[in-house]
Specification:
The protein is mainly α. The chain folds into two domains: about 1-80, Winged helix-like DNA-binding domain superfamily/Winged helix DNA-binding domain (Arc Repressor Mutant, subunit A, Orthogonal Bundle), CATH 1.10.10; about 95-175. The protein is built from seven helices and three strands. The protein has helices spanning about 1-10, 15-25, 35-50, 70-80, 90-100, 105-135, 145-175; strands spanning about 15, 50-60, 60-70. Strands 1-3-2 form a three-stranded antiparallel beta sheet. β2 (about 50-60) and β3 form a beta hairpin. α1 packs across α4. The longest helix has about 35 residues, at about 145-175. The protein is elongated.
Length: about 180
């Protein structure tokens, strides 16, 4: 969540309320965050020196406005280039695409997409191996119904990763055709 907030603050300085609204209005489609978790993340970013907070009075109300620092900006751009952990593939991949327009160089954008596709291929391969292994196991009749639905969840993983790969590959092809 830290890097999503940093990306938002690269675009403009925001209050906690505005950050929360931004999550609700779009980011929540792929990354959910509670008001409390946003508060904690802002506190952590402040402690790390990645953001600063300025208190302002507008219409008689105190507002805390958060802005990114140079170290926060550097951390964000490093995160955009970093490898994605397989356990957070979908959320991190979509978060990076959400901010892809912040990368100044088209080659950097392509590299981010290639890394996402590489990770999808890796996870898809692991799921396919698991599927092959499970299809060879003889299941006792008493557990066939349970096994059937467990295999359905594996099938879901294979299909969703297949879709994701196609979607990210199409985005990369679009970028390569129209940089």
């Amino acid at each position: 969540m830290e890097f999503v907030i940093l990306g938002l603050l690269i675009l403009q300085s925001l209050t906690l309320y505005e950050i929360n609204q931004t999550f609700k209005q779009g980011i929540s489609l792929f990354y959910s965050a509670s008001y409390g978790s946003l508060q904690v993340t802002l506190k952590n970013l402040l402690a790390k020196g990645m953001i600063v907070m300025e208190e302002r009075v507008e219409n008689g109300r105190n507002k805390k406005v958060y802005s990114i620092t140079e170290s926060g900006r550097a951390a964000f751009y490093q995160w955009m280039q970093d490898e994605i952990p397989p356990s957070k593939l979908e959320v991190t991949g979509l978060s990076k695409v959400y901010f892809l327009g912040l990368l100044p160089d088209v080659e950097q954008k392509k590299q981010v997409l290639r890394e996402i596709i590489r990770k999808i291929d890796l996870v898809y391969g692991e799921l396919a191996q698991m599927n092959d292994l499970y299809s060879q196991i003889c299941v006792p009749d008493a557990f066939k119904e349970v096994a059937r639905y467990r295999l359905k969840t594996l099938d879901y993983g294979l299909q969703s990763h297949g879709f994701a790969r196609g979607w990210f590959a199409a985005l990369l092809a679009e970028l390569e055709a129209n940089p």
